[in-house]
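in:
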């Protein structure tokens, strides 16, 4: 098995980090990140946007995207063998979104980093359809990260512990469900979606999705999806997001094949990389499955 590929890590350019409430400290140390990667045998890492409030302090999303994407492109240019850059998009105006999409190739950014929702809109909103057309046409994966700035329902949770533990990951799960129910996963079936944190609570409710769907279809309470929900889930990708639970991994493997479960450290939010790696190495699964999670799944994902 070759080196580990980390599909969920973060680096915040200082010019963006300093305009946030949370990411000012320890999120812009690239030397530390490279040292950590070397220490734990991580060959390459995808740099994702952790979602932040920077757009509220930097004149809107368009400015944040320009500055952030150019900075990430510079990192990739400096360390092409160590990092994959994921670009972000402005969700406010269709023309700005399309313009930034077209810049991704020029900046050599090989993935798209999206939040699970934006100001109350999930990713099934019409403004995001060009993203999926672009991703499908160019074979660029779309990574869906939890929205941490006012995720849907935050006004009812609004708690420093409950929001990140429950609100953020539920936002990912609902986003995934909305993409399925809207027909986007069917229409853009060649687009490659990666959902953080094993898709939130998806592994726990997977069976309920099918059972409830079949019950409701008998009474025509839900539209015909053409196949069971779990058939859609098999085509999606999920990252481990630094999880240290064997049970969570085995549960996720009931949703998708190991080649669709990808290692993600969630560095620097997660500092226990040794445990996140060990849970896969020591899990009661075949070596080929471990190889799929650590590196081979991502390598296949990047092929056109």
């Amino acid at each position: 098995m070759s080196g580990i590929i980390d599909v969920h890590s973060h680096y915040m350019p200082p010019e963006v980090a300093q305009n946030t409430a949370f990411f000012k400290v320890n999120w812009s140390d690239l030397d530390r990140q490279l040292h950590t990667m070397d220490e734990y045998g991580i060959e390459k890492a995808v740099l994702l946007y952790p979602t932040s409030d920077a757009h509220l302090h930097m004149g809107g999303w368009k400015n944040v995207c320009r500055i952030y994407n150019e900075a990430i492109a510079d990192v990739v240019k400096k360390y092409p063998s160590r990092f994959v850059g994921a670009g972000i998009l402005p969700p406010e105006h269709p023309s700005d979104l399309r313009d930034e999409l077209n810049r991704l190739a020029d900046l050599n950014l090989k993935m798209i980093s999206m939040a699970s929702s934006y100001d109350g809109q999930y990713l099934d909103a019409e403004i995001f359809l060009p993203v999926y057309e672009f991703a499908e046409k160019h074979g660029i994966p779309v990574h869906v990260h939890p929205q941490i700035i006012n995720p849907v329902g935050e006004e009812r949770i609004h708690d420093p512990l409950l929001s990140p533990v429950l609100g953020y990951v539920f936002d990912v799960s609902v986003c995934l469900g909305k993409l399925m129910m809207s027909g986007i996963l069917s229409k853009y079936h060649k687009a490659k979606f990666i959902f953080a944190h094993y898709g939130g609570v998806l592994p726990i409710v997977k069976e309920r999705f099918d059972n409830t769907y079949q019950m409701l279809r008998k009474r025509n309470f839900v539209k015909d999806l053409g196949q069971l929900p779990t058939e859609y889930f098999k085509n999606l990708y999920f990252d481990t997001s630094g999880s240290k639970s064997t049970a969570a991994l085995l549960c996720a493997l009931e949703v998708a094949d190991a080649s669709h479960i990808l290692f993600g450290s969630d560095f620097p939010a997660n500092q226990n990389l040794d445990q996140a790696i060990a849970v896969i190495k020591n899990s009661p699964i075949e070596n080929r499955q471990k190889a799929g999670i650590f590196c081979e799944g991502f390598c296949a994902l990047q092929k056109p």
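note: Strands lie at 4-10, 42-48, 83-87, 111-115, 117-118, 121-122, 142-145, 193-195, 237-239, 261-262.
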